[in-house]
Specification:
single chain, 373 residues, mainly beta, Neuraminidase, five-stranded antiparallel beta sheet, 1 helix, 28 strands, 3% helix
Length: 373
């Protein structure tokens, strides 16, 4: 099995119930010493994290495994039941902190728990669309649709022949106004590894589009007000540090990408994002540590080297200046602090960026924004 890494780093987030503010961010955190899974809350203004719930015998590692029923305040996530050894869909009430749903999914778990799996909530049908490697045919990825109305799960579509390749740092986003579930998947074509966007009809499962990703869009979120997907892009530049991150718009109707602004941050967590539709704010994990050596215990791995690796892994054109990094050692496991960056999606400008965590492993996974009223 192969693992493709799309993000420069990996993380997650959450939000608190006891504040005067209406909206907060929720996410997951693992206990690395046992099999407990914690639900955490993040104050979007201060980035203060409060632990709210504990669920034993579950594990998560992928960073884009959650979706939200905003109306009822139910947080869904794809997880691994350590006791039964099944991939499951969990539904957690953000009001009562109780586990409401546990649905067994016909997925084959990878060595890296949750990687290559996605979860999107469809408010039109009150259903959750999940994606993962097929348990019977592991070379195929499979979309399933779970109806909360009937309590049944049905096959929606199969993604054939993409190979046993999982995408770490990839993302999925549902445009429910147009009924298209977009999946970012890796493929292996006779040894050539790359990524594509696959757009599936949420009713028929028909493959509507299979497109390239020229802006390296990641962490996308759908905004029903503008019927636009907003996310973070990346591109190579001549001046130091050699690349930059951008705010990018994507339209399901035209399948076109539009660069909106350039961000003043160097590091970015690929599949971590949440959208406050009312305040028009996109939340992502970013930081301005210039290289791994800028924090204790790190090494001098250049971020241009990391970006060059990302270009190769995503099948994009690689500039000649990346040649010096061929065969270089993998990035060190020590990762820098991360800020909770809020971006106005209408202007593309950064609103705030309080520090969220001092170590990568301290940040929550799979964040969702919930307006509690």
């Amino acid at each position: 099995m192969a693992l493709v890494t799309l993000a420069l780093f990996v993380i997650a987030a959450s939000f608190p119930l006891g504040s005067d503010a209406i909206g907060y961010i929720y996410g997951l955190q693992r206990n690395l010493t046992d099999t407990s899974l914690y639900l955490e809350e993040i104050d979007p203004q201060t980035a203060k994290v409060v632990r709210r719930g504990q669920f034993d015998q579950y594990d998560v590692a992928g960073q884009g495994l959650a979706c939200l029923n905003d109306k009822e305040g139910v947080y869904f996530t794809v997880a691994y039941n350590v006791s039964t050894r099944d991939v499951v869909l969990l539904g957690i009430s953000l009001r009562t902190l109780q586990l409401l749903d546990e649905v067994k999914l016909p997925f084959l778990e990878s060595l890296f728990v949750g990687v290559g799996q996605y979860c999107n909530y469809d408010p039109v049908d009150d259903a959750i669309i999940v994606e993962g490697r097929d348990k019977v045919k592991p070379y195929d990825h499979h979309l399933w649709k779970y109806s909360r109305k009937t309590g049944t799960i049905e096959s929606l579509a199969k993604v054939f022949n993409i190979g046993m390749v999982d995408l770490l740092g990839g993302f999925s986003v549902l445009d429910f106004d147009h009924g298209i579930d977009w999946l970012q998947l890796a493929y292996n074509d006779s040894g050539t590894v790359g990524t594509r966007f696959f757009g599936y009809d949420t009713d028929s499962g028909f493959l509507l589009d299979d497109i390239d990703n020229p802006e390296l869009l990641a962490a996308g979120r759908y905004d029903p007000r503008t019927q636009t997907i907003y996310g973070i892009g990346s591109r190579m530049i001549e001046k130091a540090p050699g690349f930059e991150h951008t705010v990018v718009e994507f339209s399901s109707v035209t399948t076109s990408f539009k660069l909106k602004s350039v961000l003043p941050f160097i590091n970015f967590m690929g599949a971590i994002s949440a959208l406050d539709i009312r305040q028009r704010l996109l939340y992502v994990y970013m930081s301005n540590i210039t290289h791994h050596g800028d924090h204790e215990g790190g090494t001098q791995t250049n971020n241009v080297e990391l970006y060059c690796r990302m270009l190769r892994l995503t099948g994009r054109r690689v500039p000649s200046r990346c040649d010096r990094f061929v065969g270089a050692a993998a990035p060190p496991p020590k990762l820098p602090p991360m800020d909770l960056v809020s971006i106005d999606v209408d202007t593309g400008k950064v609103v705030a960026h309080p520090q969220l965590c001092t170590e990568f492993t301290q940040c929550p996974l799979s964040i969702e924004f919930w307006n509690r009223d």
